[in-house]
Write a structure and sequence with these properties.
The protein is an alpha+beta fold. It is built from four helices and eight strands. The longest helix is centred in the N-terminal third of the chain and has 18 residues. The termini are far apart.
C-alpha cells in the first residue's frame, strides 16, 4: 500500500500545481515624451538631404516655419518647416516639409516631398543660394533679434514668432527674418539677421 499512497500523493501534488494560475508579469509602461519643436537649420538639412535624391544640384530658395497647435511652442524653434529648393539644371522647383507630427495641411512626420513646379530662374525678390551659406540657426537668430525687440516683446507677450529664410535684393546674402506674428502680411514688426554671420541688419515696423 505504501507505493500506492506515494503515487497518489504525487498525483495530488501535480494537480495542485496545475490549478494555480500562472503569475503574469507586466512590463512597466514606458512614458512617451511629447513631440518637441526643432530648429530651422536642422530641419533644412533633413529636407536638403532628401532633395538631393531629386536633383544633385539643388539650391535653397526659401525656408519658413509652421506652428502646430498640437505641439507646445518654443521660442526659436517650430513644430514644422517648409523649404523650397530649385534645380538650375532641371529648371524646376520643389517644396519639402519636415514635421514632428502628422498634421493637417498635408504635413507628415519627418520629411515629405511635394510636387515639382516650373522655375524660370532667379528674380530680385527671390534668389536661390547654397545651403553652406546658412551658418546660423533659428534659436541663435531669435536671441539676437530679441535684443532689438525687447520693448515690442514686452508690449506683445506670447505673440507667435515666424521664421523666414531667403535671399532678396534688400541684402547681398541670405537672411533670416524673425517675424512677430503668423506671417509677413499680418505682422507689423520683424527683424533681419544675416544667415551667415548672425549679425543684426535691420528692423522693419
Amino acid at each position: 500500500m505504501k507505493p500506492f499512497t506515494m503515487a497518489l500523493a504525487a498525483i495530488m501534488l501535480m494537480l495542485s500545481g496545475c490549478s494555480e494560475a500562472p503569475q503574469q508579469t507586466t512590463a512597466p509602461k514606458r512614458e512617451v515624451a511629447p513631440p518637441q519643436p526643432v530648429k530651422g537649420r536642422y530641419a533644412l538639412y533633413q529636407m536638403f538631404n532628401a532633395g538631393r535624391g531629386w536633383s544633385g544640384d539643388i539650391q535653397v530658395l526659401r525656408l519658413n516655419s509652421i506652428d502646430l497647435r498640437d505641439v507646445k511652442p518654443e521660442r526659436g524653434k517650430a513644430a514644422a518647416w517648409q523649404a523650397t529648393f530649385v534645380s538650375p539644371q532641371l529648371g524646376r522647383a520643389r517644396s519639402y516639409t519636415y514635421s514632428v507630427i502628422e498634421a493637417e495641411g498635408n504635413l507628415h512626420k519627418g520629411v515629405f516631398a511635394g510636387l515639382e513646379e516650373g522655375w524660370s530662374g532667379a528674380r530680385p525678390t527671390s534668389k536661390p543660394f547654397l545651403i553652406a551659406a546658412v551658418k546660423t540657426d533659428s534659436d541663435e537668430v531669435y536671441a539676437t533679434a530679441l535684443k532689438h525687440a525687447a520693448d515690442y516683446e514686452k508690449k506683445n507677450p506670447g505673440k507667435p514668432i515666424t521664421f523666414l529664410l531667403e535671399c532678396t535684393e534688400q541684402f547681398p546674402d541670405p537672411v533670416w527674418r524673425v517675424i512677430w506674428g503668423e506671417s509677413v502680411g499680418t505682422s507689423n514688426f520683424s527683424v533681419f539677421i544675416d544667415a551667415s554671420t548672425g549679425i543684426y541688419l535691420r528692423t522693419m515696423r
